[in-house]
Amino acid sequence: MSSTVIDLTEDSPSGENLPFPLNAKSRNATTPYTSTRLPPLREVLNYAQPQARAQPAVSQVLADTIKSMDASLLRSLVIKHCHSNAPLKNALEEELLVTGKDVIRYHDGSESEDDAESEIKSDEEGSGDEEEGSTTKPIAIADHEYTSRYTECINCKETFDVTENLVRACYWHPGEKELYDDDDFWADHDEDCHGRMEDLDDDSTYAGGFKWTCCEKLGDSEGCKFTKHQAPINTIKRVAASTGQKRKAEEELPRLERSKW
User: Fold this and answer.
1) Are 80 and 132 in contact (CB under 8 A)?
2) Record's PANTHER family (predicted)?
């Protein structure tokens, strides 16, 4: 008894040598022939990949216009489009807003903010327990409330990120500028022409004619105090004792004094 061997490895069998019903050309074929050959896996994977959405391109002329336009006009346009463009509003909220719990605290008047290399230390000593769990200390907003991520430091006047505020980020002088009456610096100064010397303390051109009261260095010298950046939003609030607490403390004091007798 003879048998027929079918070669299924060929990419495109002719079909002439196939037995019925695989032979689509058979005279007695009553069932239409359907190929069971699968496409290469490479084609399947390429076809299944989602097409990447093209990102909107910002033209150079638009970028240049944004960079050069009036800042107040740009702000008003951004606010205007935030009312009608939800994706834009959501993106700006994600980039520009943070919750109170994410704000790194600043201990005002405390040595806990002074870097070890600061030339000038704070007048008040910081308590050690303020460092541990300092992020829970109260500030101007609650932990769940939102605030601006970027703000201006009241000491160095630089803009900083309230969530990335580290020691030594801010170099500043806690003192004030006073006139340094140096004959060499002010020799050619004419107050009738250039103005009163005392009024020029904020003019960088005359920085060499002033000294800082905190460190006796010239007005253009680097800050002598190294701390975090400080702003109203990240400064820890000093909670005053309530009237009831004060009254209780006053009542306890005589008892303590009598116990010593």
Assistant:
1) no
2) C2H2-TYPE DOMAIN-CONTAINING PROTEIN (PTHR38167:SF1)
Q: What angle do CA 191, 180, 157 make, to 5 degrees?
A: 95
> Burial level of 223, CB count in 10 A (0-12/13-18/19+)?
buried
Q: Rounded to 5 degrees, what angle do the CA atoms 122, 125, 127 make? A: 135
Q: What does the alpha-carbon distance between residue 111 and residue 116 come to, in Å, rounded to a whole number?
A: 10
| pTM for the whole structure | 0.61
Q: What is the pLDDT of residue 114?
A: 65
* Residue of 63, 12, 5, 58 lying closest to 35 (CA atoms): 12
Give the pLDDT band (50/70/90) at residue 247. low
Q: Where are the domains of the chain?
A: 59-174+224-261, 184-221
